[in-house]
Amino acid sequence: MSMDPDPGRIPDLEPGGGVAPGSTPPESGQVSGLSAPEPRTRNHFPPMGIATIVIVALLVIAFLVVAVALLA
Hints:
With 72 residues, this protein is mainly alpha-helical. The protein has a domain at 47-72. The protein is 35% helix and 0% strand. The protein is rod-shaped and about 85 Å long.
């Protein structure tokens, strides 16, 4: 069973397979590029990420101190 739509039932489809001018929405997406500009992303590291790194570093230091104390 084919999943392709029936060309006879597609609105605004011309005999050659194209569509009439004005049949597509003005902001329709393109195959080769973006239809709208991408929003600017933040350039700073989030505070929660910094806190996570600090907590992990403190846990590693505490683990090393305990390991050295047990070996000594």
